[in-house]
Write a structure and sequence with these properties.
The protein is globular, with a radius of gyration of 11 Å. Helix 1 packs across helix 2 and helix 1 packs across helix 5. The protein is mostly helical. Helices cover 72% and strands 0% of the residues. It holds the Pfam family DUF3791. This is DUF3791 domain-containing protein.
Amino acid sequence: MVNCNKKELEFTVFIINKLSDYLKKPASEIYKILSETNILDDYIIKCYDVLHTLGNEYLMEDITELIKERGIKL
């Protein structure tokens, strides 16, 4: 994970936990998926300024679609 500030880190943890609930998978598995596909660094942290203003449901759908686009079956 790239260097990030406290707000970005808190947002990242929030996203991992929300996706865990949304996809009914362990948070550790979600973290692994997001890390291995570079979604964590290249999207969630990099685009924090925009993403943190969006609604939970939209975020879950958006990130889930991005995971699928990267070839991961959920």
